[in-house]
Design brief:
Blueprint (H helix, E strand, L loop, with lengths): L6 H10 L4 E5 L13 H8 L9 E5 L11 H20 L4 E4 L2 E2 L5 H18 L6 E5 L7 E2 L3 H10 L6 E6 H7 L6 H14 L5 E5 L2 E2 L10 E2 L9 H8 L8 E2 L9 H29 L1
Parallel strand pairs: 1-2, 2-3, 3-5, 5-7, 7-8, 8-11
Antiparallel strand pairs: 4-6, 9-10
Helix pairs in contact: 1-2, 4-5, 8-9
Length: 290
């Protein structure tokens, strides 16, 4: 949800279409820096009279940040931007910010991953008094982007000096484009079996539910509205009805207009999957009793 007009406006927008989870950018996602929040903006957000109706609220970092950047100026801007965004998120009492790990820009995978680890360690050391975490988001692997495999995300976490400050956000479109075939319920189950073995189920903090405009293993990051892309409805039906994901926040990052009609349609579709699942469970119980 957009924070245009102040962060509290995002809560109004989310509640206007019946959301109980929300993700925001803590500033313009295509700018390096922004003026600090005014005290009134922080108060209006944290003390919003209907804030408690949202069970989950978290943030996403800007898209310019690249913690593996080889250009010294870009890397310095990335560090400062991430530091300032974490502070902004802390002021808004957000539990974590979702972060795209970065792109190695030709330096190589291992060097890029190590630079991400070192950079995160430095940021966390400087902001050791903050509680906010970072949720590493799996990427589609476009270009030299890192973090498109569970192994790469696990490397960052395992090598970190503060692994307790790191968790993971999985994006369905990115998973699919990166080569994880989640187009079937079986495929989703197998993918999360791998995730549990390599990273651990306790690290999963959030899900981005997006269809993909591009085919499996395309390595191209292009979101589409649910049911309109290449993935089909099975992965979303599974993720919306499987018990282990019931308390994991699920966020739409799909194309939408100002009236949020596309989000309403997707949420109605998800409600329908809940009803289908409930009916299926009821029939199983009846069958078991009879």
């Amino acid at each position: 949800m957009s924070i245009a007009g102040g962060p509290a406006k995002a809560i109004d927008r989310a509640l206007s279409i019946g959301c109980n989870a929300m993700q925001i950018f803590v500033k313009n996602n295509m700018q390096w820096f922004a003026p600090p929040f005014l005290p009134a903006e922080i108060s209006d957000f944290c003390n919003h009279p209907r804030r408690s109706e949202l069970q989950f609220v978290f943030g996403h970092t800007g898209y310019l940040i690249n913690l593996a950047a080889t250009n010294p100026e870009t890397h310095a801007h990335s560090v400062r931007s991430l530091r300032e965004e974490l502070i902004r998120g802390e002021f808004l009492q957000l539990p974590f910010l979702v972060l795209h790990p970065g792109a190695h820009m030709g330096a190589g995978v291992n060097e890029g991953l190590q630079k991400i680890v070192t950079t995160l360690d430095g940021v966390f050391a400087e902001l050791s008094n903050l509680k906010i975490q970072i949720a590493l988001e799996i990427t589609a692997g476009q270009g030299t982007c890192l973090g498109h495999t569970f192994e790469q995300l696990a490397f960052i976490i395992e090598k970190s000096e503060t692994p307790e400050r790191l968790c993971v956000c999985l994006d369905t479109a990115h998973l699919f484009a990166a080569g994880y075939d989640i187009s079937t319920a079986k495929g989703v189950r197998e993918t999360f079996k791998q995730f549990d073995a390599i990273i651990g189920s306790d690290r999963l903090a959030a899900l981005h539910l997006n269809d993909s405009k591009t085919i499996l293993n395309s390595r191209v990051d292009r979101h589409d509205n649910i049911g309109h892309g290449k993935m089909g409805l099975e992965p979303f039906r599974y993720l919306m009805t499987e018990k282990r994901f019931l308390k994991i926040p699920k966020i739409l990052e799909t194309p939408k207009g100002k009236d949020l009609a596309e989000d309403r349609d997707a949420m109605e579709l998800s409600s329908f999957t809940h009803e289908v699942a409930a009916l299926s469970r009821e029939h199983e119980v009846v069958a078991a009793v009879s």
